[in-house]
């Protein structure tokens, strides 16, 4: 390709069909950077290929055999989650350590994310993450290297966990200006919510969401559309029709551009009959399924709950497979359901995976901390503060 291809999540959704095809051709012609970006595109973006995970894993395995540490870093995620092949968390850990030892910047970002938020089996330690980031920034300054906006971004993430959003805001703004697309959402939240859980300035929040959307942040576009409907109930009926049409168009667009939560919200609308829509379990399931295919934990939990409480007619086998996918993605609720299914004699073909990775967590003393099972007629609810978003950050909208 004429420009370097970024393998980052948000950047891949910005590619046109022509650019994707060019990236695929470059990958086939031996361009390692393009191949890694194409593999990530298959995992995160592609909606049309049922074998996209397997294809991505094959590409990355070949690159790793050739010595690519960026491929090792990407394989780490697939091995940990069981995408395109078996779950193998021991190998995932080795791949991450190997790519870190080789100085792979993508691996380092994954380590920082895990350390800040306590992901992928790593205990949350934002102070250590901050210390590491500051040391890395100092080293770059000593070597007269340009600043790395991703280090600035994770500095902001660590400061937010340790202090508050206001203290983290300057780092999020710097990272956003430096090209970290996801940082625009953090900026909007910091301006709109301050250090509170309730919004303190809607106008400012909307302005920053609009700016983030203009920079390619699909989550900002989704939240702007959602916030624009806050006064829906007070609109005249004729105005409602136009507002509703625009709202649905914006939600679908945001989903196509990478805001998976937009699909979950569309599912909720049809499940609950919101915004003057009829309750429609088929449409609700369809949108939850779209989000689940993008590895959204909440969507998987809701699909499982729909089966469990008789909202849709699906087999026990499908419910068990959904639970297993959720366990792989670190859903505490679905991990519990997976182990329960296993102890009842189901999912036996996954015995090694369940007994090695999920039973020990399920049996631990702190498993039920902050977790509640679903009521008969309502969704499972886990405090949003305890659930990571798709990018590894935590929901700021609880």
How would you portray this structure in words?
There is one protein chain. The chain has 398 residues and is mainly alpha-helical. Helices cover 65% and strands 0% of the residues. The chain has helices at residues 9-13, 17-28, 32-44, 52-65, 69-81, 89-101, 105-117, 126-142, 149-162, 165-177, 183-193, 202-214, 218-228, 237-256, 260-272, 281-293, 297-308, 316-328, 332-343, 351-362.
Q: What is the strand and helix layout of this fold?
A:
Layout: H1 9-13, H2 17-28, H3 32-44, H4 52-65, H5 69-81, H6 89-101, H7 105-117, H8 126-142, H9 149-162, H10 165-177, H11 183-193, H12 202-214, H13 218-228, H14 237-256, H15 260-272, H16 281-293, H17 297-308, H18 316-328, H19 332-343, H20 351-362
Helix pairs in contact: 2-3, 3-4, 4-5, 5-6, 5-7, 6-7, 7-8, 7-9, 8-9, 9-10, 10-11, 11-12, 12-13, 13-14, 14-15, 15-16, 16-17, 17-18, 18-19, 19-20
Number of helices: 20
What proportion of the residues is helical, as a percent range? 55-70%
Tell me the number of strands: 0
Q: What structural class results from the helix and strand content? A: mainly alpha
H/E element string? Answer: HHHHHHHHHHHHHHHHHHHH
What is the average of the pLDDT values?
90
Give the percentage of residues in beta strands. under 5%
Unreliable stretches: 369-398
Kindly provide the radius of gyration, computed on alpha-carbon positions and rounded to a whole number of angstroms: 21 Å
Q: Describe the global form.
A: globular
Q: Roughly how many Å apart are the termini?
A: 41 Å
Biggest beta sheet attributes: none
